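Sequence in, structure out.
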Amino acid sequence: MAFLSQVFWLAVERKALVLASLQEHIAISLLACSLIALCGIPLGILIARFRAIAPWVIGVTGVLYTIPALALFGFMIPFLGIGVRPTLFALFIYGLLPLVRNTYVGITAVDPAIVEAARGMGSTEWQLLWRVQFPLALSIIVAGLRTVAVMTISVATIAAFIGAGGLGVLIFRGITSYYTELVVLGSLLVAALAVGVDGVLGFVERKLLRRVQM
């Protein structure tokens, strides 16, 4: 209890650094998740429409996903320099697989009888996708987005190594100065941010699911 009290007072004493790091972390994570959603969902829909290329796309994103995070940041430095750009690129690579796969699985898992009934009622392929398949797959897609958001917030701590800022700064400063309270403070803030974002997206998921079921 005394240790947690020290962590709390440390946060109060260094509130300027904590708030600046928190803002940087939120900005990096939000931007990365937006880029992943903008590319991952359309790519998942595309491979659901052209299923022959699905194993190739999922395979390539899966291979990229296996590259160690620190090594990927290192690979990007000669091409993109240091700072936010290589961080966003690395986070984008890591977040692509869960969202592409969830979107693909959600679209292709829609009951074929429902698809045939929609076609029988004269729906075009576009109407079938946006009025039937996408709404029914939405809960699975949002579940993928929740995974991406939590993972992105966690991995973004490594970005402090290449000067991108964020809550990783607190953790690495704590490690290099043997200041355990600072490490714990940074870790608690990352965990709280991840849990909070997951809770918000979970709420959105339940709302969407309820709306689809009505």
